[in-house]
């Protein structure tokens, strides 16, 4: 083996306070002896494992719905929900294929179901969400609460809750985006999975009772106790969400980085809907172009309405309705609405609740060039 292949000093940095030890034959022999005992000298890897700032292995990506849709539908012919458990085409970030993540520690996929189909009930440590892309008649049953789902509705299946999905007999083929923190649960080595002993669960409450109870904006059902760690509302309907955004747009300039943006929250606490995954919907007014910023935590976006483009870490991505794109942690991103007459809406879920809970949240504006990144490609 040549010296180059044995290099232990590839992460040296000539900066005070950082590891900076050149290899010598004596040191290399020492490092090899340490390695034979399943140990190592920290200074050979310290600069790698403690980067100056987050160094995500995820890359910015965009998946065009027009490219994926036919193959998602093809899965209907190839496997049944009984065989597959969940009939899903997942999104794989080339930098995260080892953990099956779309970005960072977040998983995402496109699930398809035909009228009359119902997948078996199960529960897991991972927290899950769904954003409805197309079709009618979809429903989810979460711990006995049956939620009917339409286009651009957002629904939670919090960790530990029994849940199953299906499409009514008189519905149409439905496609929705799943989002889960499966990679995070596996990284924490805390992931359990159970199939419901009866395969399907009963509907134990009036249909859509969670929104009827909790979705009155600014109103809270008196005397209703809620102590669980997730939102009792479970479903957030598109009509009310879009209405809230357009109302806010009338009276506010919004964020210079995100336009008019609202978080989907737990109405009982004002906090995120689930402990590990947060979600937001933002509206970019006609012609709006935001400035770049970056945050700890990563984002999976779906265009819910309109068309536009985003610059992520210097790369420009064009998007239109149903396209999905990801922003890895600590990468600058900015968004633009391509239309001068119509608004554009971006749904996103993210791991900011984890960043905040652990005291890791940071945010930084791009300071140069009027707040816009140079576009490299
Ligand atoms: Fe699930
Ligand atoms: Fe942002």
Order of helices and strands: HHEHHEEEEEEEEEHEHEHEEEEEEEEEHE
CATH superfamily of the largest domain: Jelly Rolls
Average pLDDT over all residues: 96
In terms of structural class, how would the helical and strand content be classed? Answer: alpha+beta
Oligomer kind: single chain
Helix content: 10-25%
Query: How many whole angstroms does the radius of gyration measure?
Result: 23 Å
Notes on the structure:
By secondary structure, the protein is of the alpha+beta class. It has 2 domains: 4-49, no CATH class; 61-371, Sandwich (Jelly Rolls), CATH 2.60.120. Helices cover 18% and strands 28% of the residues. It has helices at 25-36, 46-49, 65-78, 81-84, 182-187, 209-214, 238-251, 352-357, and strands at residues 61-63, 88-90, 107-113, 122-124, 128-134, 138-142, 145-149, 154-157, 163-167, 174-180, 193-195, 235-236, 260-264, 278-284, 293-295, 299-305, 307-312, 315-320, 324-327, 333-337, 344-350, 363-365. The longest helix is centred in the N-terminal third of the chain and has 14 residues, at 65-78. It starts with 24 loop residues before the first helix and ends in a 12-residue tail after the last strand. Bound molecules: fe (ii) ion (2 copies). One fe (ii) ion binds at residues 122, 124, 128, 157, 163.
């Amino acid at each position: 083996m040549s010296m180059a292949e044995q290099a232990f000093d590839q992460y040296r940095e000539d900066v005070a306070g950082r590891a900076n030890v050149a290899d010598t034959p004596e040191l290399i022999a020492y490092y090899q002896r340490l390695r034979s005992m399943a140990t190592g000298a920290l200074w050979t890897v310290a600069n790698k494992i403690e980067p100056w700032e987050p160094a995500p292995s995820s890359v910015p990506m965009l998946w065009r719905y027009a490219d994926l849709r036919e193959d998602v539908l093809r899965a209907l012919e190839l496997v049944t929900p009984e065989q597959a458990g969940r009939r899903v085409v997942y999104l794989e970030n080339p930098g995260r294929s080892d953990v099956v993540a779309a970005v960072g520690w977040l998983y995402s996929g496109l699930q398809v179901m035909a009228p009359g189909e119902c997948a078996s009930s199960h529960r897991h440590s991972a927290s899950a969400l769904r954003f409805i892309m197309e079709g009618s008649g979809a429903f989810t049953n979460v711990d006995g609460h049956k939620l009917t789902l339409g286009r651009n509705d957002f629904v939670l299946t919090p960790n530990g809750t029994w849940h199953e999905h299906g499409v009514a007999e008189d519905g149409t083929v439905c496609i929705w985006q799943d989002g889960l923190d499966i990679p995070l649960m596996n990284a924490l080595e805390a992931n359990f999975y159970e199939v419901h002993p009866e395969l399907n669960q009963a509907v134990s409450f009036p249909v859509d009772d969670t929104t009827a109870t909790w979705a009155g904006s600014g109103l809270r059902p008196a005397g209703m106790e809620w102590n669980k760690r997730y939102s009792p509302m479970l479903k957030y309907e598109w009509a009310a969400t879009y209405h809230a955004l357009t109302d806010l747009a009338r009276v506010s300039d919004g964020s210079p980085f995100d336009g008019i943006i609202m978080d989907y929250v737990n109405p009982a606490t004002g906090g995120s809907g689930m402990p590990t995954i947060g979600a937001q919907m933002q509206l970019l007014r006609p012609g709006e172009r935001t400035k770049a910023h970056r945050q700890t935590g990563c984002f999976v976006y779906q265009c819910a309405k309109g068309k536009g483009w985003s610059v992520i870490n210097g790369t420009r991505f064009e998007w239109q309705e149903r396209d999905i794109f990801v922003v890895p942690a600590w990468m600058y991103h900015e968004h633009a609405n391509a239309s001068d007459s119509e608004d554009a809406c971006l749904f996103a879920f993210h791991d900011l609740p984890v960043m905040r809970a652990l005291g890791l949240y940071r945010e930084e504006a791009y300071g140069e060039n009027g707040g816009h990144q140079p576009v490299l490609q």
